[in-house]
Amino acid sequence: MVFSTSIRLVASGLALVAAALVFAATPGSGNAKQAGVLHAHSALIAAENAKPGTPAWAITFPNDRGVEGYTSEPSVRPGETLHLHVATVPANRYRINVYRLGWYGGAGGRLVTCIPGCAGDEQGVEQPIPTYDPQTAYLNAAWPVTDELRIGARWVSGYYLAEPVLTTGSQTTRGDMIPFIVREPVARRSAILVTASVNTWQAYNWWGGKSLYSPERGVTANHVSFDRPYARFAFNQGHMYQWEIPMVHFLEREGYDVSYTTDVDVDRDALAGLVRNRLVLVNGHSEYWTKEMRDGFEAAARAGTNFAFTGANDGYWQIRYEQERRTIVEYRLAGIDPETDPAHKTTWFRKLDPP
Could you tell me the pTM of the whole model? Predict the structure, then answer.
């Protein structure tokens, strides 16, 4: 996997928006105490990126399933526990390397910890790919929790990868990438909040045979689950590597005071989550929003929050969540959506009634 060229291209292009970021995210002169707090947070990002990095996070995938997994949570805060579901096919031993993504002198990531340890491993178990629902194409892998990761109290908000790596078998050293976000502590408030476009990652994810873009074999998916691994090529197509990681590298290279969240978190606490920060930067291709997300963005804009949209096609499709935000519901045609409330139909926002 090659990242350096795209990172350089995107980073150079981002210089065009730097002036806007400085205007919105640099501490103002009106509140000296607030300015001091923001300066301290910016120093936190600088100190984190001064730590030794490694390019080893850009792992080589297996030729087949090999090892793969997913998390029970799209994001966590320091002090919380992330639950991982890992399978090895065939059954082999593995360890999980956990990286934080940032600049790190150009290395792009830093090894934070390993499960069960950086010199240890554990026995993996083979798990099946369930059959998707013939009516909705919904597929929940429903694998058991195999590993737990306690997020340290001092972990810095960011994009993280949990990477289960094979330690036995013919594909030793190859592994999978399982992304998650560490949010900032409630008591901390950065100048810039970056939203990871996890809804789009899942919309393009065809692991198990179906995404929101796969009408073949007579079934168009209208329910897709977070409870499954990412199809590897689809993960790249889902734009995390094309656009989101280069933006992370740029922001942290330049020392902006930044923290991170996800679409799911914006939906859960839209207005309160967005107005905490001077600037909200929507990262990548943030195509799929819920009504609650859209309402929250509009309310935050009225309240004076600054926004930067660094990709295209943002806030394009309205979706709904089900199963405690673990399932995305999106019917391509509003006329076949069983939802009776017009305001919650899954369609383009411009086609809602009222638009």
Answer: 0.90
